[in-house]
Amino acid sequence: MSESFLLGVLGGMGPLATLDFQRRLFDATPAQRDQQQLPSVVWNVPQIADRQQALAGTGPSPLPQLIHGITRLNQAGASHIAIPCNTAHHWYDALSEASDAPILHIVDATLAALNQAADKPQRVGIIATHGTLAAGWYQQKLIAQGIEVIEPTAQELAEWFVPGCYAVKRGELDEGGALLVRQAQALFDRGAQTLILACTEVPIALAAVNAPFLPLTFDPAQALAQRCSQLWQGI
Amino acid sequence: MSESFLLGVLGGMGPLATLDFQRRLFDATPAQRDQQQLPSVVWNVPQIADRQQALAGTGPSPLPQLIHGITRLNQAGASHIAIPCNTAHHWYDALSEASDAPILHIVDATLAALNQAADKPQRVGIIATHGTLAAGWYQQKLIAQGIEVIEPTAQELAEWFVPGCYAVKRGELDEGGALLVRQAQALFDRGAQTLILACTEVPIALAAVNAPFLPLTFDPAQALAQRCSQLWQGI
To answer: Hey, how many other C-beta atoms are within 10 angstroms of the C-beta on A155?
Structure first.
């Protein structure tokens, strides 16, 4: 454990996903007493322009507010920064430039976890926002490893993913879970062997409705939390 | 909702209680979308001297580390500060002096909640650390309202409360819950009509073991979260 380690969490996207990420940090860290737990400073300010609307061209950019949060976390002394929101990584390069502390990339953490799996899949489905899918980071890195990628259709996103995601943001986990289960099932039906749940609302909702296929999924927030905990533990 | 509102949370005491408090803030705030949720910056740094040992004279004071956290929260722009740890309120006056942002007092929030209860109790038990009990804030304010106070004995604290509390800090909620149920039951047996669970580990552990008497308890962390949410909502 490093004396100078302090994890900055750029959260608020959404606020519930930020709590979920903190719980994952806690669970990922073996500790017999408080003092062994990972130290963090968490910017959980959800008054930030909608990322999905911004990338669809129907709303203002969240970049100034994201940079404000990054600046505050640096001022608070963060040695590393994690962003438990896949879509916000659209602005990763600009945020990295604005940050003295290195920002861990959620896609790198996820691919590292996937590569450590005992049974490496050949066909991987991705549940994500339009913005994350359009950015293409997951697809590029998976294809580079010879893995076939199965994506939601535009109609599936409109009918299941987007309303499911916003239901979670309203705290309606059962409603959101039911919609997101349909989205997940469609990807399995098209041949996916495992799913990357690349939007932080999705695993929360699927867990809330006890989706039976959860063991077949990869959660980027979990991969990112594990990477942060390993850094703290000096692994 | 105030443009300039930003809740600073001085957490880390312990780290799990800090997560629990954030969930209470979330649940206490009616919101249809992310942007309506309470904005916060959370200092969750558990590398801080043990408060119970400090007050028992067997360890160093946590005051410098508490002031460091308060300073960081002020630098991050906090408009108000909450401390979801009863024992840390032992240093309330010194922390208030070091803070530009007002610090909400957990005892004031709890007494306000007690006074709003439909059926105001005549005999109240308190589960708390040696330090909180020795400080006497809860007792003084309850007695001033004509309420009789029932406290744990030194033997009960040593056998049930202290080991129960440290079990929670290790993440062993079932073990901690079983010990703290015995502490609670002893206070009910001596005539308490309701209990103030004045140590943030206690309600977490009692909920984990589904203690049947939970509806008969007051949780200062919950009262503090409600007060913070009301401020954000402009109530």
So the answer is: 9
> Given CB atoms, is A43 within the 8 Å cutoff of chain B?
yes
Are residues A56 and A73 both part of a single domain? yes
| Same domain assignment for residues A125 and A71 | no
**Which range among A94-98, A168-172, A185-189, A221-225 shows the weakest confidence by mean pLDDT?**
A168-172
Containing structural domain, residue A142:
107-220
- The residue of A3, A22, A232 whose CB has the most chain B CBs within 10 angstroms, and thus the best one to mutate to test that interface, is A22
Q: Would you tell me which residues 80-139 of chain A have a C-beta closer than 8 angstroms to some C-beta of chain B?
A: none
In this structure, the answer to whether residues A189 and A159 fall within a common structural domain is yes
Which of A140-144, B32-36, B37-41, B159-163 has the weakest average pLDDT?
B32-36
Average pLDDT value for chain A: 93
Contact across the interface for A47 and B31, Cβ inside 8 Å: no
Query: Distance (Å) from the C-alpha of residue A14 to the closest C-alpha of chain B?
Result: 6
Q: In what order do the strands lie in the sheet with B40-44?
A: A80-82, A7-10, A40-44, B40-44, B7-10, B80-82
Asked whether the predicted pLDDT for residue A1 surpasses 60, the reply is no
Query: Per the CB < 8 Å rule, is B26 touching A16?
Result: yes
B228 labelled catalytic: no
The complex scores an ipTM of 0.87
Flag whether A30 is in a domain.
yes
The answer to whether residue B81 is domain-embedded is yes
Per-residue pLDDT tens for B42-75?
999 999 998 888 988 899 999 999 999 999 999 9
**How do strand B40-44 and strand A40-44 relate by DSSP bridges?**
antiparallel
Beta bridge pairs of residue A124: A149, A194
- Whether A2 is covered by a domain: the verdict is no
Whether residue B100 is found in the same domain as residue B112: no
Active-site entry in A17, A133, A149, A199? A199
A220: tokens are 């980027």
